[in-house]
Specification:
Layout (H helix, E strand, L loop, with lengths): L20 H8 L6 H16 L18 H23 L11 H7 L6 H21 L8 E4 L2 E4 H23 L8
Antiparallel strand pairs: 1-2
C-alpha cells in the first residue's frame, strides 16, 4: 500500500493527541510513518502468524499468560470492533464521553469461542472495515478529539493505538509459539 493521499491523515501523532502513557507506549513501539499503511500491512502478519498456530496450540495457556491463543485472537477481534466504533464516534464529532471496556471480562465469558480460522477472518474483515472508515473521513476529522475511558485522544491516536494493540498481541503470540518474527509484509 502506498502512503495515504491525505497530507495530514495517517501521520504519526503529536504528543498533544494522547493523554495516556500506556497509549503513547503502544504507539511509540509501532514502526511506520503512515498508520493506514501499518494497519493494512498488519493483515499479512496476522494471516502468516495464524497459519503457524496448530490445533494443539490454539487452546493452550502458556505461563505466565492466562489466555489461550484463541482467546488472544478473540480479544483482538473484540478490540478491533471497539476501536472502529470509537474512531467513528470521534470522527463524527460526537462529544459524548465513551466508556472503557473490560477485556478480561469479555475473555473470561468465552462468549465468542469459535472456529479459529473464522476468528482470524473476522479480525481481517474488521480491520478492512476500519481502514475504509479512515480512508473516507475528511482530513480535518483525524484531528477531532474525544474522551475514551477518561483519556483524551484524537481519531489519529485511536488508529495508531489499534495498530499498536494488534502489534503487541501478535508479538506475544510469536513469543508463545517460539517462532521468529513472522513475515509482516
Amino acid at each position: 500500500m502506498t502512503p495515504s493521499s491525505f497530507p495530514c491523515s495517517g501521520r504519526r501523532c503529536e504528543a498533544s493527541e494522547i493523554s495516556a502513557d500506556y497509549h503513547r507506549a503502544l504507539i511509540d513501539a509501532t514502526p511506520g510513518d503512515d498508520v493506514l499503511v501499518v494497519l493494512n500491512d498488519q493483515m499479512t502478519w496476522l494471516c502468516n502468524l495464524a497459519s503457524e498456530v496448530s490445533a494443539d496450540q490454539v487452546d493452550l495457556v502458556h505461563s505466565p499468560y492466562s489466555w489461550t491463543i484463541r482467546q488472544v485472537f478473540e480479544h483482538c477481534a473484540d478490540a478491533e470492533r471497539v476501536f472502529g466504533y470509537r474512531m467513528m464516534r470521534l470522527a463524527a464529532g460526537d462529544a459524548t464521553d465513551l466508556p472503557g471496556w473490560d477485556e478480561n471480562a469479555y475473555a473470561a465469558s468465552r462468549f465468542g469461542l469459535g472456529n479459529f480460522v473464522k476468528i482470524v477472518s473476522e479480525i481481517g474483515l474488521l480491520r478492512q472495515s476500519n481502514l475504509l472508515l479512515l480512508k473516507r473521513i475528511s482530513p480535518k476529522c483525524w484531528n477531532h478529539v474525544g474522551t475514551v475511558d477518561g483519556k483524551r485522544l484524537t481519531v489519529r491516536a485511536l488508529a495508531w493505538i489499534a495498530a499498536g494493540h494488534l502489534r503487541h498481541h501478535l508479538e506475544i503470540v510469536e513469543k508463545r509459539l517460539g517462532v521468529d518474527r513472522i513475515t509482516r509484509k
